[in-house]
Amino acid sequence: MKLTVQDLNSHYGPAHILFDIGFEVGEGEVVALLGRNGAGKSTTFRSIVGLVAQCSGRIMFEGKDVSARPTHEIVREGLGYVPEERRIFTDLTVEENLEVGRQPKRPNAPHWTREKLFALFPNLGEMKNRPGGRMSGGEQQMLTIARTLMGNPSLVLLDEPSEGLSPKIVEQMVEAILTMKKEGVSIVVSEQNLHFARLISDRAYIIERGRICFGGTMAELDARPDIRDAHLSL
Amino acid sequence: MAFYVVQFLTGLASAASLFLVASGLSIIFGVTRIVNFAHGAFYMIGAYIAFTLTERLSGAFGFWGSIVLAALAVALIGVIVEMVLLRRIYHAPELFQLLATFGLTLMVEDLVVLIWGPDDLVGRRAPGFKGAIDFFGQNIPSYDLFLIVLGPVVLGILWLLFQRTRWGVLVRAATQDRDMVAALGVNQKWLFTSVFAVGVFLAALGGALQIPRDAVHHAMDLRIIVEVFVVVVIGGLGSIVGAFVAAVLVSELNAFGILIFPKISIILVFLVMAVVLIVRPWGLFGKPEAAARKTPGLTVNPWRPLTSNERLAALAALVVAATLPLFAGNYALTVGSEIAVFVIFAVSLHFLMSVGGLASFGHAAYFGLGAYGIAFLAKMAGLPMIVCLLLGPLLGCMGAAVFGFFAVQLSGVYFAMLTLAFAQIVWSIAFQWVSVTGGDNGILGLWPSSWAASPSHFYWLALGVAALVTIALRAMVFSPFGYALRATRDSLLRSEAIGIDAKRIQWTAFVIAGTTAGIGGALFAYLKGSVFPDNLGISLSVDALVMVLLGGVETVSGAVIGAIVYKALNIWLVSQTDLSKLVLGGFIVLIVVVFPKGIVGMLEMLVQRRRKSSPPGSPLLAKPIESAE
Q1: Residue in B90, B171, B180 to test binding to A, most A beta-carbons within 10 Å
Q2: Chain A within 8 Å of B166 (Cβ-Cβ)?
Q3: How confident is the model at residue B625 (pLDDT cuts 50, 70, 90)?
Q4: Distance between CA B560 and CA B600 in Å, rounded?
Q5: pLDDT in tens, A13-65
Q6: Distance CA B420, CA B414 (A)
Q7: Count of CB atoms within 10 A of residue B531's CB?
């Protein structure tokens, strides 16, 4: 397994957010983490990369336990994270944003260069020197993914990549994610949008109120309209 | 005309060091969000070490090598400080960080005297820049010209460093969002350490470069830090270009201010700072800070009025305190009166910083103004004591009204820096305006009227006033005004959204706290029989902060207990050792690192823990950056 999460529990202060979350991602797989607003998708991702102070559980990445390690070490193992809020460095140019994400080559992961990323996201190539703060939401979303890819990750956690984007940009996003998959990057993508998830994912988990309540292939999910209707707003 | 040109050039030369120190402070703040109070101390150590090295190493290479070597050595000290102390407190509230670095400053002041002695040291002239250049009959030291060139050169190097290197890109990214930088695989710890080292290097270089111009002495840290705070407030915290422009501006104002107001030249700088703050509160080149991350986080438990049992206990404590004259001697009573005065002072600061969320680093200004108010009224107008006691604090009230108006335009560290700068300005006026304030000699011979003259009567007076003030301020917490004030503390935006005029509420709180401090100062003047500039100095401001933090910020009783413990400890310490600053500084650092909740906070935690088995980590201690969401 590429990534295995077991018994993940997270708290924000006194509030218990995640309850015994567990899921798996295979090599080269795209797995969707589906759930409504506030279900715990982002917290799951933040917990995996060590950005939640109070969390317990086991996170195995490429056979190594990374649960107690600091964020930057986890990321340097090849586990990339693309936050939902994008968190572009608004004062930095596109190129500088990419520079922050740059990490050395990794033997088991595709190697991304600026040129390759500008081919993947042509819009970015046209605005290399524009400050991140003066880009549209869609452009920022592309930049935040490209920035994470500069770290040459073998697995990427993509937090709601289609959120707030126009249909045209969503199409580009689907293309980009499929290219990443073809290059051999494993992906966990959190989504509220089942249609979007269906276009890219091999399997799906559904998270509701901090608990995983379904796991299976997309076909299995389609066979259970009751689960789909109960936990996902369409 | 030539004279003015020379004066202008002198100003530019002074700007060089100021810029170096200010840019270092700005860089450190940008990434670590720590306002490094110890920056002045690093500047001072830089000067001392450079002095020693230039005495030992000869020749031109020896001199310039010494300067660089001194700065590098201090940068190394900075790295150790960062790794040992600051890494433990990055997640603590801003106030604690300022306080910890202030504790360091205190320690350094004593250490420097221990190592280099108390006398001013006059350093070597710079080889190659010993002479002066004649400019239409006026002399310009050639070293000044060197400094004038150096400033822009350093600015250029820093610009290249930040724009053209990977390190610079990472630092700029971390300035905006350090968690995201970590989430991209960058080790924040070393980034922070390297940034701190660079900042400290700049400060030490600024200090080392001063030795051919100025004598090295053990008070140069406070003098520079106040100017640096003014510079970064004007230029904008986090902006290097801003630091440069503001350093030039402040230095020129100093250079020409001396010609216009020879006695109180600092007024001019203050006026400019006030104007900048009104027009652009975040400084000329700064960016408005997102309102999200601020001082709160201090109060976690909601406050409640005292239960009747607790009221009885407080009353009992007061009664016991009132019986002191029955068995204690005059010395104990004088100490008791002093403690009562400081209870007033601490409670007033507590009101401002815990109830209002406005941590003032210059609260002594209003304490001292109250004291000077008494001195003016009693000595110059010859009014009787009771009238003086009623009117004297009004000077504190007026000072708080003027400064508070500007100060509440800002929040967080800006507020702290601004209040500190204001206090230092008041101190400078008291110190420099000899004809009115007596300068360093102060105003002597203020004695209480006969009805309050005996130590026991004065003690009862001080105790009574302290009790009344504490009760009044505590009652105010639960008044509609108190609710509004706490609302502005917890969320400025939301309180404004429900129709609270937040700035006005905060200003009112500032004035109330200032006036109350003035009452304390008024009593203090009568207790000591004299008034000195030290009564409004920085160390007194910090004393008040330490009292509140020592006792615990979260409760009024914390301020009272903190004042009693701290003052008693302080009086005892001064009688025991010459190195009181060293011990005190170490003590402050220890409180911040080990007991961030203070005495009362600790006791409450123990009580709570006994009630129910301990909750998973205290919410205050485990409050990292994630609250942004």
Answers
A1: B180
A2: yes
A3: very low
A4: 10
A5: 888 999 999 999 999 999 999 998 889 999 999 999 999 988 999 999 999 99
A6: 10
A7: 28
Query: CA-to-CA distance for B627 and B629, rounded, in angstroms?
Result: 5
pLDDT in tens, B180-212: 999 999 998 899 999 999 999 999 999 999 999
The alpha carbon of B234 is separated from its chain's Cα centroid by a whole number of angstroms, namely: 17
Distance from A198 to chain B by nearest Cα, in Å? 28
Q: State the virtual CA torsion across B548, B365, B541, B479 in degrees, nearest 10.
A: 10
Residue B565, Cβ density class (10 Å: 0-12 exposed, 13-18 middle, ≥19 buried):
middle
Rounded distance, CA B201 to CA B68, Å? 9
Say if A49 is an interface residue toward chain B (CB within 8 Å): yes
Is-contact B558 B552, C-beta < 8 A?
Answer: yes
Residue of chain B whose Cα is closest to the Cα of A75:
B185
CB-CB contact of B254 with B11 (8 Å): yes
H helix runs in B443-579, sequence order: 455-477, 480-490, 492-497, 502-528, 538-551, 556-576
The Cα–Cα gap between B301 and B597 comes to 12
Of A49, A71, A96, nearest to B169 by CB-CB distance is: A96
SS3 A154: coil
Contact B378, B445 (CB under 8 A): no
CB-CB neighbours of B55 under 10 Å: 13
What is the interface pTM, i.e. ipTM, of the complex?
A: 0.92
